[in-house]
Design brief:
about 290 residues; alpha/beta; 8-stranded parallel β-barrel; two-stranded antiparallel ribbon; 10 strands; about 15% strand; binds 3-hydroxy-3-methylglutaryl-coenzyme A; binds magnesium ion
Length: about 290
């Protein structure tokens, strides 16, 4: 048993936003490195339209190459996506909506209610694990500030549909600890084990938000190696919370994660190279400098 649960999203949330294509073999190397560093849960890609997100259009090639040893998942937006996932025997899927219609329309061409109707059909078909994302939990880049009760409404609808967990996305990385606390207050009565926080670090507030969530008793977080990430339909959605920063912070706080920070700091290097980027996540840089 570990004290904090980390769900790695770099191959999906990280690479979906990159201008340069990353070859399938490179993605595989990244995923293998993450597994070797001790990461168990990895969101590897999406069954979305390759016209909308060409960066992830190779999932049919990538999925069968994944090695044993990881709990792999992928995004599914609609029945067509589910059909593709089922064709590959994918057990863990994630559906995704938001607290704002304006965002879901840009992101998946549906209103929130339309997306929930589709997720109900997906749940009826899919027997395996199903996560539900709620994006724009604090602010929508198109509709502005979001009230916690708007988020609670969508979270309740997702659980009513039968998702196994909900991931709460600060899509544009605007949130601060007060907002985490306000939203957590609105989530009263829900099982904290079934809530995951998904922070982007656009403004450097992600780790402060993790600290706030930990103090409130939450222990599950999405993060991305090297802080890769963003969302193509959310202007300004900078990198995700870097897994290295999260692991460093957790370990120094006395919490176990099951992850080897040294191996993790190296796992993304060849992918960064492929993207023409230098490492920039703080704990990754510090770890590499120490070695
Ligand atoms: P659409 O254009 O409305 O789809 O896209 P449609 O149903 O009208 O179909 C149009 C064509 O697309 C048809 O093909 C369909 O077969 C095909 P045609 O007849 O023209 O040849 N199509 C598909 N092909 C492959 N896979 C599919 C699929 N569905 C339809 N699943 C759709 C709707 C949802 C597909 C589109 O909007 C889409 O792919 N969006 C991508 C959204 C995305 O990946 N966004 C980024 C992830 S969300 C995120 O980053 C936030 C998160 O990290 C949390 C946070 O930070 O807040 C999760
Ligand atoms: Mg995200």
């Amino acid at each position: 048993m570990v004290d904090i649960r980390i769900i790695e999203v770099s191959p999906r949330d990280g690479l979906q936003n990159e201008a340069l294509p990353v070859p399938t073999a490179q993605k595989l190397e990244l995923i293998r490195g993450l597994v070797a560093a001790g990461i168990k849960e990895i969101e590897v890609s999406s069954f979305v339209s390759p016209k909308w997100i060409p960066q992830l259009g190779d999932i049919e090639d990538l999925w069968p190459m994944l090695s044993e040893g990881g709990l792999y998942s992928a995004l599914v937006p609609n029945m067509k996506g589910l059909e593709r996932a089922e064709g590959l025997g994918v057990e863990r899927i994630a559906v995704f909506t938001a607290a704002s219609d304006a965002f879901t329309l840009k992101n998946i061409n549906m209103t929130v209610d339309q997306s929930l109707d589709i997720f109900r059909l997906i749940r009826a078909e899919h027997k395996g694990f199903m996560r539900g994302y709620v994006s724009t939990i604090f602010e929508c880049p198109y509709a502005g500030l979001i009230e916690p009760k708007q988020v609670r409404k969508v979270v309740d609808q997702l659980f009513e549909i039968g998702v196994d967990e909900v991931s709460l996305g600060d899509t544009t990385g605007v949130g601060v600890p007060n907002e985490v606390r306000d939203l957590a207050r609105e989530l009263h009565g829900l099982d904290k084990q079934e809530i995951v926080w998904h922070f982007h670090d656009t403004r450097g507030t992600a780790i402060a938000n993790v600290a706030a969530a930990l103090e409130l008793g939450y222990t599950a977080f999405d993060s991305s190696a090297a802080g890769l990430g963003g969302c193509p339909y959310a202007k300004g959605a900078g990198g995700n919370l870097a897994t290295e920063d999260l692991v460093y912070f957790a370990h120094r706080m006395g919490l176990s994660s099951g992850i080897d920070l040294s191996a993790l700091a190296r796992a993304s290097l060849s992918t960064l190279d492929c993207l023409g980027k230098l490492p920039s996540a703080k704990a990754q840089l510090a770890m590499l400098a120490d070695e």
